[in-house]
Specification:
Layout (H helix, E strand, L loop, with lengths): L2 E4 L2 E8 L7 E5 L11 H4 L6 E4 L15 H14 L5 E6 L1 H11 L5 E7 L9 H9 L1 H12 L6 H12 L3 H12 L14 E6 L7 H10 L3 E6 L6 H4 L1 H15 L3
Parallel strand pairs: 3-4, 3-5, 5-6, 6-7, 7-8
Antiparallel strand pairs: 1-2, 2-4
Helix pairs in contact: 2-3, 4-5, 5-6
Length: 256
């Protein structure tokens, strides 16, 4: 899979399908994540061009990572422009959802839709978790997966998530969570003018369904979907349900 240099940053991404005259689905992962946090069912959505990058300092994309949501949004905007994408539906999970919202409130000309997965307009992080990420990274990455999945999720998912988190530089994960902690676009949601699908997991304790409902109530052209038996990492817990919801949204709003 290819790399592209956007601005001065080299970015790794995966591409499924061929961008043509239809909107492209761009999947943006969350804090300490990578393109692998999105399931195959969505990364290879039929009849749709899907692009899944690794953010700077994550996965296969080289450092430096960023310390602000606005900076990650700058990277994604430069990435979109470098690939000459004319119409993009940005799907973001958690921190990726914050990045997507930032692009939308800026009125990025290429962004024609949003899919906000397990995220919120404000993403406050527990001070205790931030301190643990800064001072005891090993313990922190063992703790996070315990809250990231529904209670009945297979332990194999938690172990895999912990393993992927642990592959990050500690400063990257801390920086991501710190960036989320100061993110707040509640007063700007009314400026989002593109069709938006908000998806929450019924068992998500990190970004509870009330966060999603708030987004759907305050973004003018938004709809809300609740995925049952899913926690914060719903994309990996209920991949078929997520892919079905996204495909339905795209059919209803775009010629795909």
């Amino acid at each position: 899979m290819p790399f592209v240099t956007a601005g001065k940053q080299q970015i790794y991404y995966e591409l499924s399908g061929e961008p043509a005259d239809k909107p492209v689905l761009l999947l943006v992962h969350g804090a300490g994540g990578s393109h692998l946090d999105w399931p195959e069912e969505l990364r290879h959505l039929p009849d749709t061009a899907v692009i899944t990058p690794d953010l700077p300092g994550h996965g296969r994309t080289p450092p430096p990572a960023r310390s602000a949501i606005t900076a990650y949004a700058d990277d994604i905007q430069a990435f979109i422009e470098k690939l000459r994408l004319a119409q993009v539906i940005v799907a973001g999970h958690s921190m990726g959802g914050a990045i997507a919202q930032e692009l939308a409130v800026r009125h990025s000309p290429q962004v024609v839709g949003l899919v906000l997965v397990g995220t919120g307009a404000k993403l406050r992080v527990s001070p205790a978790l931030l301190e643990m990420l800064e001072t005891d990274f090993v313990t922190a990455v063992a703790q996070v997966p315990q809250y990231a999945f529904a209670p009945n999720a297979p332990d194999s998912l938690r172990r895999a998530h912990q393993s992927r988190l642990a592959q990050n530089d500690a400063a990257v994960v801390y920086g991501d969570f710190a960036a989320c902690d100061v993110f707040d676009v509640r007063e700007q949601l009314g400026q989002i003018s593109v069709p938006t699908l908000v998806i929450s997991g019924s068992e998500d304790v990190m970004t509870p369904p009330k966060y999603g409902r708030y987004l759907a109530e305050h973004i003018p052209h938004a709809t809300f979907t609740l995925i049952e038996n899913a926690g914060h990492m719903m994309a990996l817990e209920q991949p078929d349900e997520l892919a079905t919801a996204v495909a339905r949204f795209m059919r209803q709003n775009y010629e795909v």
